């Protein structure tokens, strides 16, 4: 039955059949994360980086009533040009969009779902969602976290998006048994910066170590994903105090405008971009490239196990 709702690109299907490494990529970053044409350029560059590091890229979206696993260049262009006209699709939205044949851009949660359906274990993104600031009262919590608790896909990211409550997000992940790994770091990166003030659960220093961790977890039928926190490269990170102040200002503005739910993170990231004069967008692009590189390396090692 699942195949009725799944359209896997032929190249990706071949790679999966012979157990070659494949890396899943989300599409919300194309439609909602960046302006056109940078969004399309970035998406295509990310695919190039995955390929150059030995894995097959699989950008995912909902197209014409199905999960499309492996978009072609025209489809990426379509998502990029359409921008926010494309529905943002998380877990709760999937049945509606697919049953109505409405196109959707996949978030971390829905990309994990589609990747798992297709048999892809490694996924590269920018940063994961989490508990929003004030979430202890509002219960505004990203669906990404429940997906990480239940879906067997490893997510390579630059940590938790720093517009969120990092501490509460880590507590939530711990409660649900989700391991947070730091790639060559003991401190959890905070998206735009390597610094957060919080520690990861375990530091692993090579792609092989990460692959062995994943193999051990899933071989024991310990369900759920893994967060692989990969710090933004030093040359591209923003100053911690500078970005913290700007994020605080953006959050205050969101609260004043009563912006909540799935509109919250896109608004905050757009406001941060405005207040940093575009520096945050440049950092965002570089951290995504860095995560794609590492995800491909991990996928290559995992495929050999």
Question: How would you characterize the overall build of this protein?
Answer:
This protein has 305 residues and is of the alpha/beta class. The protein has one domain: Indigoidine synthase fold. The chain has helices at 10-17, 28-31, 38-52, 73-82, 94-100, 108-118, 135-138, 143-150, 166-175, 207-219, 240-256, 264-275, 279-303; strands spanning 6-8, 22-25, 56-63, 66-69, 87-89, 104-106, 122-124, 154-157, 180-183, 202-204, 226-229. The model has no long low-confidence stretch (mean pLDDT 95).
Secondary structure elements and their pairing?
Blueprint: E1 6-8, H1 10-17, E2 22-25, H2 28-31, H3 38-52, E3 56-63, E4 66-69, H4 73-82, E5 87-89, H5 94-100, E6 104-106, H6 108-118, E7 122-124, H7 135-138, H8 143-150, E8 154-157, H9 166-175, E9 180-183, E10 202-204, H10 207-219, E11 226-229, H11 240-256, H12 264-275, H13 279-303
Parallel strand pairs: 1-4, 2-3, 2-7, 5-6, 7-8, 8-11, 9-10, 9-11
Antiparallel strand pairs: 3-4, 3-6
Helix pairs in contact: 3-4, 3-13, 6-8, 10-13, 11-12
Name the assembly state. Answer: single chain
Helix content: 40-55%
Main sheet summary: 11 strands, mixed
What is the rounded Rg? 18 Å
Can you count the beta strands? 11
Q: Give the H and E element order.
A: EHEHHEEHEHEHEHHEHEEHEHHH
Terminal Cα span: 30 Å
Number of helices: 13
Domains counted in the coordinates: how many?
Answer: 1
């Amino acid at each position: 039955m699942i195949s009725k709702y799944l359209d896997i690109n032929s190249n990706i299907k071949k790679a999966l059949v012979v157990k070659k490494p494949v890396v899943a990529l989300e599409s919300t970053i194309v439609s909602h994360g960046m302006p056109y044409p940078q969004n399309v350029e970035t998406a295509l560059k990310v695919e190039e980086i995955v390929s150059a590091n030995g894995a097959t890229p699989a950008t995912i979206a909902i197209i014409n009533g199905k999960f499309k696993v492996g978009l072609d260049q025209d489809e990426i262009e379509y998502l990029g040009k359409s921008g926010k006209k494309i529905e943002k699709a998380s877990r709760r939205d999937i049945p509606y969009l697919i049953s109505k044949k409405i196109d959707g851009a996949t978030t971390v949660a829905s990309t994990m779902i589609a990747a798992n359906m297709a048999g892809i274990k490694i996924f590269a993104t920018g940063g994961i969602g989490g508990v929003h600031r004030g979430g202890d009262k509002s219960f505004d919590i990203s669906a990404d976290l429940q997906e990480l608790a239940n879906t067997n896909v490893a997510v390579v990211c630059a940590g938790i998006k720093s517009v969120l409550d990092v501490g509460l997000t880590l507590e939530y992940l711990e409660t649900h048994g989700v391991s947070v790994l730091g790639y060559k770091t003991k401190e959890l990166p905070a998206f735009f910066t390597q610094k957060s003030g919080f520690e990861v659960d375990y530091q692993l220093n090579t792609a092989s170590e990460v692959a062995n961790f994943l193999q051990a977890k899933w071989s024991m039928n310990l369900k759920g994903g893994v967060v692989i926190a990969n710090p933004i490269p030093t040359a591209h990170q923003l100053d911690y105090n500078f970005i913290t102040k700007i994020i605080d200002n953006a959050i205050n503005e969101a609260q004043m405008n009563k912006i909540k739910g799935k509109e919250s993170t896109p608004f905050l990231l757009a406001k941060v971009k405005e207040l940093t004069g575009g520096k945050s967008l440049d950092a965002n692009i570089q951290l995504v490239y860095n995560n794609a590189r590492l995800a491909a390396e991990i996928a290559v090692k995992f495929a050999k196990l």
